[in-house]
Amino acid sequence: MAVLHPGPSPQGRGRHGRNRLPPRKRPRLVTIITDHLARLVPASRGQGRLVAGSTATGAEISIPYIAARGAADGPTLWVTATVHGDEVNGTLAALDFVRHLDLAAMRGACVVIPAANPLAFDARAKTAPQDGLDIDQQFPGAAGGLTTQRVADRLWREIERAGDCLVSLHTLTAHFEAKPYGVYKLHPDGPVAEDVLLRHLSFYDPSVACLMPTVKAAGELPGNISGAIDYQFQALGKTAFMVELGAGSRIEWPYVEQGSAGLRRTAAEIGMFEDRPAPGGTLRKVLKRRHVTADTGGLFRAACTPGDILQPGSPLGVITDIFGDIVDTVTFAEPVLVIAARRDPVVATGDRIGFVATAWESRTLQSV
Ligand SMILES: [Zn+2]
To answer: What region holds the Succinylglutamate desuccinylase/Aspartoacylase catalytic domain (predicted)?
Structure first.
């Protein structure tokens, strides 16, 4: 009896398209950025795009990059901004940093991804409208996955092959007021010492440096921490951390400058420049932190500023009802350190109104 074989379907067509091809026949993705860096004349800069697909109208879904090559060989620093698409201070800080580098004095290379989540960035939103996935919970991504997972995969293929240090720039949301602060994780298999991460974070003059638990912790937003780009980079045994540069959806120039100045010090710290920076003295290291949510809807009026330490009974703020009568005064039984306070007054029950540290310690960083 004859057995009918349908024969191979053209690549990218057929019922399951490329996903049905055996791995060896998959198109081999070149590392575009590494190749681009190798082609650059020493002490020069280039730019390009990583294509991750297309939209319904045929527009490319592409991740823009800037690649800068120093005058001599050395380490490679990656800076990713706006993995959350509306956290624009990071984009501006990264651009200001890379465009003002003295390449003639630089060793190694710097790669800046100014809009790491392009669909979300264009949509002026944290996540891409196509699937609503938080891309910073999707790394290393999935080549045959949902749109956001494919974007993560495309970016990750480049990063994992060439990079010694990664800085992931974020902000809080536009609802909040916050001074810049650092966030870091400690990968259980990662050899990078905590002191190395704290030293880097001190370069950004942060209000606090938060050790983010990598197992599920009360008070953190729900989500998959291990899918964060900095955590995945740490899993490769390399230095990675996050810097939160204020609020989202608007420019805050002092924080943009704080971010670009910090990046320059990080570059020097890993050996790209001669002037190894001094760490920023004493750092407040946060051991526990939590979001504070409204118990009742109404209008929240903050009574504190980020960086304040609130003693028991001292209010984070009050909530009035829509007629203006105070219906709740938000206080704490223990001292808290305010990381961020809400500035958008309109709240429903469960909305975030503050972000506070409940346990912290001072760490004095030694000059090396
Ligand atoms: Zn973010």
So the answer is: 73-267
Q: Per-residue b/e over 332-357, b at no fewer than 16 CB within 10 Å?
A: beeebbbbbbbeeeebeeeebbbbbb
pLDDT in the model for residue 5: 42
pLDDT tens digits, one per residue of 310-323: 999 999 999 999 99
CA of 79 to the centre of ligand 1 (A): 14
> If we measure between CA atoms, which residue out of 337, 290, 296, 291 comes closest to residue 318?
296
| Interval between CA 268 and ligand 1 midpoint (Å) | 25
Q: What's the pLDDT band for 367 if we cut at 50, 70, 90?
A: low
Q: How many A from CA of 123 to the centre of ligand 1?
A: 15
Domain 27-281: what homologous superfamily? Answer: Zn peptidases (3.40.630.10)
Which burial class, exposed, middle or buried, applies to 130 when counting CB atoms under 10 A from its CB (0-12, 13-18, 19+)? middle
171 CA from centroid of ligand 1 (Å): 5
| pLDDT tens column, 204-218 | 999 999 998 776 666
Contact criterion met (CB below 8 Å) for 333 and 357? no
Protein residues placing their CB within 5 Å of the ion ligand 1: 84, 87, 170
Inform me whether the pLDDT recorded for 282 exceeds 70.
yes
Residue identified by tokens 């955590």 is 231
How, if at all, do strands 239-244 and 181-184 pair?
antiparallel
CATH number of 285-363: 2.40.50.100
How far is residue 138 from each of residues 125, 154, 156, measured CA to CA in Å? 17, 12, 10
**pLDDT band, residue 11 (cuts 50/70/90):** very low
Domain boundaries, the chain: 27-281, 285-363
- Ligand 1 centre and the CA of 172: distance in Å? 6
Pair 308, 338: CB distance under 8 Å? yes
